[in-house]
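Hello Y.,

Per our agreement to keep a running log of every chain we model this quarter, I'm adding this entry. I've kept the format consistent with earlier entries: sequence first, then predicted structure.
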Amino acid sequence: MCAVTNPRKTDFSNIARMAHIEELAKADVQSVVVEVQEYFGDFYAVNRDTFTYNIDKMIAEPRHSLEAGKFERMTEGLVALLLALKKKPVIRYESNSDQARKLAKEVHVRGEPIKGKRV
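Predicted structure for the entry above:
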């Protein structure tokens, strides 16, 4: 870990985990970091009601589960979208889809801090 010596803007792609923020704080030995701001924009708006992550082959074949990296990416993207829109949805899914159940549960857990309108 190197020390933060010159103030500058640092961007995180996707979600900056608390461990990353803590590592930045420990490296800031001269107290040059003044503030940390969050902007949730981990998606590309195609039009008013459609978005994409621009990642190929995100949907798994039937009876196959998503790769761990793709599942994580989908979860973080959905949470970022909900944070950006300040929405806390009621999540519904088909009961025989293990992938949908797992995704809904993970989005619900990670989305708990969302302060927004329930839709």
